[in-house]
Amino acid sequence: MDEAGSSAGGGGSSFRPGVDSLDEPPNSRIFLVISKYTPEAVLRERFSPFGEIQDIWVVRDKHTKESKGIAFIKFARSSQACRAMEEMHGQCLEPNNTKPIKVFIAQSRSSGSHRDVEDEELTRIFVMIPKSYTEEDLREKFKVYGDIEYCSIIKNKVTGESKGLGYVRYLKPSQAAQAIENCDRSFRAILAEPKNKPSESSEQDYYNNMRQEALGHEPRLNIFPFGHGVVQYFNVASAIYAKYKLHGFQYPPGNRIGVSFIDDGSNATDLLRKMATQMVAAQLASMVWNNPSQQQFLQFGGSSGSQLPQIQTDVILPSCKKKADPETPVKERLFIVFNPHPLPLDVLEDIFCRFGNLIEVYLVSGKNVGYAKFADRVSANDAIATLHGKILNGVRLKVMLADSPREESNKRQRTY
Fold it and tell me: Pfam families, alphabetically (predicted)?
């Protein structure tokens, strides 16, 4: 693990945040790509005009202690961090160093994502407003904090009446942060969710978001009027976990979420039996995954010669088919995500060979992912259609086409 040098001196604040407060308030840390030879004193000198610096971390090599050309600066306020990003991105820190630095808002440590936060995620705020407000009223209240791109009020689609909720989109992240920090508390302003979140369409999405995945949390959701909704999970354990985590949670702040189970007429005994089966199957698969020596015991049942447990699933699977020759050209490659852990390799092979023309299936060491190679695109597509989102032996699968080699992505050009 890399070490980070930091200082609380040098004329800055004497307060140094603990690990738990690094993201308080949200988006108050910036991530910098700098020269390896830039001293911390220069960072403090150039960035202190933007506000109170609580700490500076220069990431260093564990063995040589040399800077890796990466640093973090923690500000006391989000608006200070955002303004530092806007004004210092692309600037040169020293006269003798003409290489421009890169400055981004650092991703939350709990988010699991390693990309920088995009500007679009920092400029739109969500507010609670009186139902009598018009868009012009909303603009008038919030224009004091900066240039507004647009305002919108959420309305009932049937009656056209305001729901007392709205959005304000600013041109710069620092303006949105100023609005959240300084507007009247009755507005309960928070950053809005991005309009177009990227879908999990490839393995790259998985690697960017793997720590954000919760157990089985990709539910079927039905929303009803008056703030009620029904969420149906793929397994009982996920529903229990969701209730435990969300009941009583406030979002937006001041609005308490109440979560309870619905009596849909199902037999409670059957539900418990189903849950127990899923948990036993998951535990069994976990034992095999974490201790390969158990695979032989499971496969041969010690001295009894018993076979592996049958596949437990509601999915109607085709009958087993022969695998393709290992030298057969690969026509399609599938990317597989397992939740909460991978299935044993022999079980995985038994599942995917049923669609025909399977060349190989393998797991990525230390990750909850794997790949399947097919000699025929139709067989691969059949596997996706049948298995994606389904639970087998207590493990939920995501099955999708694997990415082709990625091309250099073009980020949105900054406008400030």
Answer: RRM_1
